[in-house]
Amino acid sequence: MITTENYNEETRTINFSMLPEALRKGHEFIKKVTGNGAHWDNYHSSDTIRHTINTYFEKLAAFIGKDKNVVVQKKQQAKQRSTKTVSKEAIHKHGIKPEKKAHSHKTKDGPAERQPLIVERLPDEIRFIRRFLHLDGKTKTKDELLRFINSLQKAILEKKIRKTSVYADQIRFVQDKLVEVYNSMGAKIAFTLKAETHDALNVFGNDEKVMASVGFIKRYINLNGKTGAGMKEKAKLLLGQINRAYEKGKIQDGDPYIVEMHEVRKNLELYIGDKGIKVLKIEKNTLNGLAGILNGCSCQNLNGFDHDETENEPVIMNSMDFANMRFKTLGMKGKWLQLIGDPSTNFSVMVFGKPKMGKSYLCIDFAGYLARNHGKVLYIAKEEGLDKTLQDKLNDKDVKHENLYVTSELPESLSPYDFIFFDSVNKLGFKPEDLSKLKAKYPTKSFIYVFQTTKEGKFRGANTFQHDVDSVIEVPEKGKAVQYGRFNQGGEISIF
To answer: Number of C-alpha atoms within 13 angstroms, CB side, residue 274?
Structure first.
């Protein structure tokens, strides 16, 4: 057990460079609030600091118990200290330079401080912690706090934030504080955090930074299709900043999005240099691919310090205007209109039934119809694979088409396709949250999920699967499909 009394002694033999990021930050926080372990007054006087440090103690003890490699033998460490301790006179005399530590720099006061760790994506917890810190010193309305609370609870319900998270206690504190303020406030409130609370949370929320390429891609997408006299100036500014990032080494060949960045530069240069091009346009497939990079990354709404509360403003419309709006539908025809109705262009369907009843035949037939009439289709045949059985079904239904593609595994990108079939979800090992992430990553795509069933004929999997789709198609008996959904309740057709 680690306590304030034994912390200095217990951690004296620990190699903190081998610890996870959260534990390294916890150690740095303790050094900051205790004067490098000299006094624990702040621990005893602040509930927030005490709770944060106690949580860190527990996680550190648990980690050390599992991984003995983080503990360096005392004799070895003492030997290393004796060989690395060099006097100032020796430095001047022999030109010895102190060893530099990765991700650190010296401040005006002298001690080394970790620079932000450059990451591709910030954890959702850190994004919420940053957003909470961003409230400090701001006047907020009750609606604004409610939106924050709702978005946090949604992330927890969708298991983007789990109870097992290393930041679980900090997130719980954030949620409790928001609810407490919301329940006691009037229409507005000047939101203020105690200095020790801000410091305690800031150590967790301000140690990682999203890579430069991701930020540039977001800004590039924001220019797409926009008109106005100042757009070319904005493009010039963006291109200049990108070029300087290349020069300073912030974007290098090892960047995971270096190919996309080369295309961004090329398109910006073309747009700026050609007076005949009035609007920056990004091709649809390219735009989908770039948007896929941004989905789920920290550059979305919850990035904290540059968060714009108006981005989450609910749309309010007069009911007369809303009733007269026209929503784009797929234009389904024939037996598929009879079965499903005319869904929106990004619909989702769940199909289930007992083995040998015809659900795969139904889906192959549907895939062929979509390929012939509505766009590119990918059929992921994980259950049967690319074997003769699948070939026979394609030939029996006579659905082979240049727009229909088949595979046995989920490809890296779904951007080229308009409709994707998963046969089956169970064989692919997907959970409800996996499908939600795919839907969020490819919001313009349509998904058709095939499920195995239990002996009782119920689909195999969590009930959440059924709640997250627009239509549910059951094959209750051989050769018959029945649909229950929002587009055509009760539609049915014969499969064979």
So the answer is: 11
Give the pLDDT of residue 463.
62
* Count of C-beta atoms within a 10 Å radius of residue 114: 15
pLDDT digits (tens, 9 = 90+) for 93-150: 333 233 333 344 444 454 445 455 565 667 788 888 888 998 999 999 888 888 888 8
Query: Is pLDDT of 298 > 50?
Result: no
CATH code given to domain 334-494: 3.40.50.300
Alpha-carbon Rg for the chain, nearest whole angstrom, is 29
Q: Identify the pLDDT of residue 446.
A: 92
CA distance from start to end of the chain: 68
Which of 431, 352, 424 shows the shortest CA–CA distance to 383? 424
Q: What residues pair up with 138 in beta bridges, in sequence order? A: 191
Which of residues 279 and 284 earns the better pLDDT score? Answer: 279
Residue 373 pLDDT class (50, 70, 90 cuts):
very high
In terms of Cα–Cα distance, which of 381, 438, 379 is closest to 403? 379
For residue 46, cis peptide bond before it (omega within 30 degrees of 0): no
Q: Is the pLDDT of residue 262 over 70?
A: yes
Least confident window among 279-293, 380-394, 471-485: 279-293
The domain spans of the chain are: 7-98, 119-209, 334-494
Closest by CA position to 420, among listed 430, 405, 434, 433: 405
Under 8 Å CB-to-CB from 184, ≥6 apart: which residues?
none
Enumerate residues 6+ apart whose C-beta is below 8 A from 464: 432
